[in-house]
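Submission sheet (multi-component)
Chains listed below:
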Amino acid sequence: MKRSHNSFYLLECRCLNAEAEIAKELLLAARGFAERQRASYVTVWQYTQMIEQAIPLTLSIRSRHPRMMTYGYIPNLTAFEPSSWETTPGDGDVSVN
Amino acid sequence: MSGSFEVSPLKESDFQDASRLLTSVFGGTRDHTMGCFAHWWELNPAWSSIIPRGWFIRSSERAPIAFTANIPFNYIIGGQPGLCCATGSLAVHSDWRGQGLSKLVGRAFVDQCKPDLLIGTDSTDVAYKLWLSLGMRPLERGWPKSSYRIVGDLSAWDRPHLPPSRRLEKSLQTERLRRKPLLAHQIKKFEERDTHDVNKCRASKASTYAVRDIKTLNWLYFGSKFVRQTRAVLWLDQGNNLSDTQR
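Outcome: structure written.
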């Protein structure tokens, strides 16, 4: 997660075998952690099906994503199949902000 | 017009000038920009000296006028190890815009030989159009237009003067109620012995994804003071692996 003012932003979430139930536990733990850090909320952009299924809806408020992601690519391998590409918000977030 | 400019791979001796250019375009401090450079290359486990750091153009007076970064990542592509390079911080000095310089440095990025996958993510509208004009394909993913805010204890919001210790206790009580004895804790560094556990963790079952081994994770989240100041990593387990030690 990345701290941003009074909240955290989920950069990535990975779990054993990509199990949504484990991801949900982790998001709940992130909530508790954020609260202990005096942050008001954790923003989660559901970039994979696992995260989409893991969001604790009763504890969450839906909000418009501020800006849509753009993703341009050039593959040089024939094995690349864009429909089976696990893209993340920023693909690893190389920014250091 | 653009034919009279020379595009060169960014060298370490260019860092100060490149930093000056980036702060003039994006703001921020030189210290922060130099920190980005260290993070993207010297500290990056996927970088080696044969991989260009980016491309740079100077004016005839040697002033820095255009730049784009080349940031490598280890990737799994179609189930096979590969190298991905991401571009970032495409910048042209305000006095030199409209002369095709962004296209020159962008062309150098897309024409590089080594990587198996090139990407440009979260670009500005102008930069995105440039990358598409240089041959990048748009990823049509149908991204969710909304995100979720998982909020803290709403009842505590009504009592802003609640002492931190009680808030902490309340949060811990909530965690105890959960059905599995899972332990979550913040970690400050992954160790070699965590390799097996970390490698089993995925965000999907896709066949192409960014590698997240312990070297990469330590670089992304703990590699420099800039990321350590703003990143938090939580690990969840059943108390027999990473949670044995508080890091």
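Remark: Strands of chain A lie at 2-4, 7-9, 15-16, 41-44, 60-64, 71-75, 85-86.
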